Amino acid sequence: MDQADSLRSLFAKQSAREKLIQCRDKLRSAIKMGNYEEVQLLTEELEHALSHFEASLEDDARDLP
Fold first, then answer.
1. d(CA 25, CA 17)
2. What gap in Å lies between CA 36 and CA 28, rounded to an integer?
3. In terms of C-beta density within 10 A (0-12 exposed, 13-18 middle, 19 or more buried), how is residue 24 classed?
4. Distance set, CA 36 to CA 16, 17, 29 (Å)
5. What sign has the CA pseudo-torsion 57, 61, 62, 64?
6. So which domain of life are we looking at (predicted)?
7. Burial (CB count <10 Å: 0-12, 13-18, 19+), residue 58
8. Cα 27 from chain centroid?
9. What pLDDT, on a 0 to 100 scale, did the predictor assign at position 63?
10. Is the distance from CB of 44 to CB of 60 less than 8 angstroms?
11. How far, in Å, CA of 13 to CA of 57, rounded?
12. Per residue of the chain (65 residues), what is the pLDDT tens digit?
């Protein structure tokens, strides 16, 4: 893996982490505000973001020597 690939991987992982945190915060806010119609949708969005984040970590683990 060259330096450019390493940087792309780092930014992709950081982006996935930020999306996960954003989804979590939106879900917490919906629960606190009592917007229960949104909770199911946001829960699904959070699960998708978590899967994407975990995949980015697995990709990094495969790249280790």
1. 12
2. 11
3. middle
4. 25, 25, 10
5. positive
6. Bacteria
7. exposed
8. 13
9. 63
10. no
11. 7
12. 577 777 777 777 788 899 999 999 999 999 999 999 999 999 999 999 999 999 888 876 676 66
Radius of gyration of the chain from Cα atoms?
Answer: 15
Q: How many domains does the chain have?
A: 1
Residues 6+ apart with CB under 8 A from 36: 30
Structure tokens at 31: 């629960």
Residue with tokens 């996935």: 16
34 Ramachandran zone, left/alpha/beta (phi>0; psi -120 to 50): left
| Domain with 29 in it | 3-63
Burial 4-20, CB ≥16 within 10 A → b, else e:
eeeeeeeeebeebeebb
